[in-house]
C-alpha cells in the first residue's frame, strides 16, 4: 500500500522552515530599527522634535512593530505546519480504526 498524501509532509516542512526564516528576518529588522532607527529619523530631527520623541518614534515603535509582525507571522506559519501534521495523524488513526472494525487490520499503516 502506497502512502497517501505524499506532498503534505513536504508542505508542512516548507511552512516550518519559512516560519523560522520569517522569525529570524523580522527580529533582525527589529534589531536594525533599535540600533539605526527608521528612515523617518532625519525628518523628525529636522522638525525640531525632542530627542526622546525622536528615539521613540524612529527607534522603539518601528522595532516593536517589526518584532510583533515577525512573531505573529511565525506563529501563523508554524501553526499551519502543525495543523497539517494533526490532519495526517487523524487520517491515519481513522484508517486504522476502520481496518480494525472491518476485521482486515493488517497492522500496516504507511508512516510519514
Structure explained in plain terms:
This protein has 112 residues and is mainly alpha-helical. It has one domain (9-100). The protein contains 3 helices and no strands. It has helices at 7-36, 41-46, 51-102. The radius of gyration is 24 Å and the shape is rod-shaped.
Structural class: mainly alpha
Helix content range: over 70%
Major sheet attributes: none
The number of distinct helices, counting runs of at least 4 residues, comes to 3
What sequence of helices (H) and strands (E) makes up the elements? HHH
Estimate the strand proportion.
under 5%
How many discrete domains? 1
Low-confidence stretches: none
Q: How large, in whole angstroms, is the Cα Rg?
A: 24 Å
Q: Can you give the mean pLDDT? A: 84
Cα distance, first to last residue?
A: 13 Å
Number of strand segments: 0
Shape: rod-shaped
Amino acid at each position: 500500500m502506497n502512502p497517501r498524501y505524499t506532498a503534505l509532509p513536504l508542505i508542512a516542512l516548507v511552512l516550518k522552515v519559512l516560519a523560522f526564516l520569517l522569525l529570524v528576518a523580522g527580529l533582525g529588522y527589529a534589531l536594525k530599527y533599535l540600533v539605526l532607527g527608521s528612515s523617518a529619523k532625519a525628518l523628525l530631527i529636522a522638525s525640531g522634535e525632542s530627542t526622546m520623541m525622536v528615539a521613540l518614534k524612529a527607534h522603539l515603535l518601528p522595532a516593536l512593530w517589526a518584532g510583533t509582525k515577525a512573531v505573529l507571522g511565525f506563529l501563523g506559519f508554524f501553526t499551519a505546519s502543525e495543523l497539517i501534521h494533526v490532519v495526517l495523524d487523524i487520517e491515519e488513526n481513522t484508517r486504522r480504526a476502520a481496518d480494525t472494525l472491518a476485521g482486515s487490520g493488517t497492522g500496516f499503516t504507511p508512516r510519514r
